[in-house]
Amino acid sequence: MKQDEPGPDPVDTRLGVRLAELRAERGWSLGELAERSGVSKSTLSRAERAEISPTASLLNRLCGVYERTMSQLLSEIEAEAGPAPLVRSAGQPVWEDRASGFVRRSVSPPHPGLRGELVEGRLAAGADLAYDRPPVPGLEQHIWVLEGALDVTAQDVEHHLDTGDCLRLRVWGPTRFRCAGPGAVRYVLAVVLP
């Protein structure tokens, strides 16, 4: 790396370390993880070394293999002493998938023993985010659009949501979130583990 080039994002670095720890805890090689996740060994290796910023789709696949939600994974890389009942706005972790134009804020205070969580999602105009599977089969989601318009596809059914609309569903297979309007969309995602 040249002196004038910025180093890896600190969140990506902590995330890479945690992903490597999760793989090591299971005693898996990169090849075994690649088989389980459907992600190439080189991409997994680069993500663990923070050479790339993982996409939301990649993290979703890994969360499925490691049996946790994305909020749980992201809360594991935060340097808090223990679960707190309150997290101030400034302390809510924000993660960005620059490739897709998706910004995710973990609103709920992280706690490993609770089943529900709130996430704020933002998609840039024209952004299209696809997940090939849920991190946990049967995951319950409530999607409430705060500003803009959002198209959500689940179980081959497309739902168009405008400001104020709320969609409830259980996720068993692929889902897709598309920013349907000329401007960005901001929404709340309530996630409840089965």
Structure description:
The protein is of the alpha+beta class and 194 residues long. Helix content is 26%, strand content 30%. It has helices at residues 10-26, 30-37, 41-48, 56-66, 70-76, and strands at 94-97, 102-106, 116-123, 128-131, 139-147, 150-154, 157-161, 166-171, 175-179, 185-192. It has a six-stranded antiparallel beta sheet, with helices on one face. The protein is globular and about 45 Å long. The protein starts with 9 loop residues before the first helix and ends with a strand.
Structure described in brief:
The protein contains 5 helices and 10 strands. The chain has 194 residues and is of the alpha+beta class. The strands form 2 sheets. Strands 1-2-3-10-5-8 form a 6-stranded antiparallel beta sheet, with helices on one face. The protein has a 4-stranded antiparallel beta sheet with strand order 4-9-6-7.
